[in-house]
């Protein structure tokens, strides 16, 4: 069966490792690579674009906004960044700013004026958006947060953290303002413990998708109510997108390795027998082939163009020129090295 992993990352600067895993280990038809400079540093967009430089017809690359201490971003700055990314050859926009740990640092409401022009541009130009909004509800309590969340600074306790309800309010306000936005909310919008919320969302916003990139809680919740989730997958089979969060790192923060996420998703959705993956035991939902074909490949293929955009030499040079003031001297050297690698 065809598989396109819509949600991968370059965290260690090794695009060749990500490509080898995607092609040789998992046999993906294509991949989506998500740049997250607000978490991985200002060069992460270019690090992700290196995947496309190595495999132009294989990798769709989404870029994120770069932030620095030079000045507070404004609406025109964000709009310009998005335009520069698209002109350079990026295929979409990746948002991580409403992950609570990022939100705490930036303190920029997603429904505020800073993002408004960029969202309007994305809607008008039909730029695909993958949006991490929130975190599992368990992260808001030291008693329920998993150890990996605490170790990575994702425990949402302390001054400056938004509530999950506030994140949801902001996101859904943006979606209401921009009903034609081609957005995919990552990790099922962290609603695996509240399926009616996911259903209301998909019923309200007809262009919205949810991606199935797993967290530690999500697939456990699926298996707690197999009949309810089977019905959900069947009803919304055109709106759900496969992803794994696979990176070029040797160790996965949550699951330990890339194969664990793949096995968890595949066994839960496609299998029908009892299984154990990582620390999770359960029985697969045994979804029908028609549903699986859409989830594993067809839905993401419908969101993006038939082929990834080519890298533009002039566009990439313009983006690199814009980013220079945000870089240290060492980062500028790395930027120059990546430009030579990608466009000579």
Features:
two-stranded antiparallel sheet; globular; alpha/beta; 344 residues; eight-stranded parallel beta sheet; single chain
Give an overview in words.
- The protein is an alpha/beta fold and 344 residues long.
- The chain is 46% helix and 12% strand.
- It is built from 15 helices and ten strands.
- It has helices spanning 15-25, 37-40, 44-54, 75-88, 100-106, 113-125, 147-151, 164-177, 195-204, 218-224, 226-235, 258-269, 289-303, 313-323, 329-343; strands at 4-8, 30-34, 59-63, 92-98, 129-133, 183-185, 209-211, 240-241, 274-277, 280-283.
- The two termini are 38 Å apart.
**Sheet with most strands: strand arrangement:** 1-2-3-4-5-6-7-8
Give the N-to-C terminal Cα separation. 38 Å
Tell me the radius of gyration.
Answer: 19 Å
Order of helices and strands: EHEHHEHEHHEHHEHEHHEHEEHHH
**Average pLDDT figure:** 96
Q: What is the beta-strand fraction?
A: 5-15%
Instruction: Give the strand tally.
Output: 10
Q: Mind summarizing the main beta sheet?
A: 8 strands, parallel
The low-pLDDT segments are: none
Number of helices: 15
In helices, the fraction of residues equals 40-55%
Structural class: alpha/beta
Q: Name the overall outline.
A: globular
Task: Walk me through the topology.
Blueprint: E1 4-8, H1 15-25, E2 30-34, H2 37-40, H3 44-54, E3 59-63, H4 75-88, E4 92-98, H5 100-106, H6 113-125, E5 129-133, H7 147-151, H8 164-177, E6 183-185, H9 195-204, E7 209-211, H10 218-224, H11 226-235, E8 240-241, H12 258-269, E9 274-277, E10 280-283, H13 289-303, H14 313-323, H15 329-343
Parallel strand pairs: 1-2, 2-3, 3-4, 4-5, 5-6, 6-7, 7-8
Antiparallel strand pairs: 9-10
Helix pairs in contact: 1-3, 3-15, 4-6, 4-14
């Amino acid at each position: 069966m065809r598989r396109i992993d819509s949600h991968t990352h370059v965290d260690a600067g090794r695009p060749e490792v990500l490509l080898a895993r995607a092609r040789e280990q998992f046999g993906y038809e294509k991949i989506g690579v998500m740049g997250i400079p607000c978490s991985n540093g200002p060069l992460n967009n270019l690090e992700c674009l290196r995947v496309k430089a190595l495999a132009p017809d294989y990798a769709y690359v989404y870029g994120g906004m770069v932030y620095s201490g030079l000045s507070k971003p404004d609406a025109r700055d964000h709009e310009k960044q998005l335009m520069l990314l698209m002109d350079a050859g990026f295929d979409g926009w990746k948002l991580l700013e409403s992950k609570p740990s990022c939100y705490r640092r930036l303190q920029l409401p997603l429904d505020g004026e800073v993002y408004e022009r960029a969202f309007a541009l994305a809607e008008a130009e039909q730029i695909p958006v993958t949006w991490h909004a929130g975190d599992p509800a368990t992260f808001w309590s030291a008693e329920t947060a998993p150890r990996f969340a605490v170790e990575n600074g994702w425990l949402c306790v302390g001054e400056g953290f938004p509530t999950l309800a506030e994140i949801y309010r902001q996101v859904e306000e943006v979606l209401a303002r921009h009903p034609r936005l081609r957005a995919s909310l990552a990790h099922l919008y962290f609603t695996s413990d509240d399926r009616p919320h996911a259903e209301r969302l998909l019923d309200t916003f007809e262009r919205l998708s949810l991606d199935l990139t797993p967290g530690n809680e999500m697939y456990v919740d699926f298996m707690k109510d197999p009949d309810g989730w089977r019905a959900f997958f069947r009803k919304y089979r055109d709106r759900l997108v496969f992803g794994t969060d696979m990176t070029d790192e040797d160790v996965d923060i949550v699951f330990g390795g890339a194969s664990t996420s793949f096995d968890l998703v595949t066994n839960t959705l496609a299998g029908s027998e009892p299984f154990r993956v990582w620390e999770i035991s359960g029985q697969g939902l045994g979804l029908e082939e028609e549903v699986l074909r859409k989830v594993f490949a067809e839905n993401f293929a419908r969101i993006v163009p038939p082929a990834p955009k080519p890298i533009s030499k002039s566009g990439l040079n313009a983006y690199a020129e814009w980013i220079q003031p945000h870089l240290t001297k060492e980062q500028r050297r790395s930027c120059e090295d990546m430009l030579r690698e990608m466009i000579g």
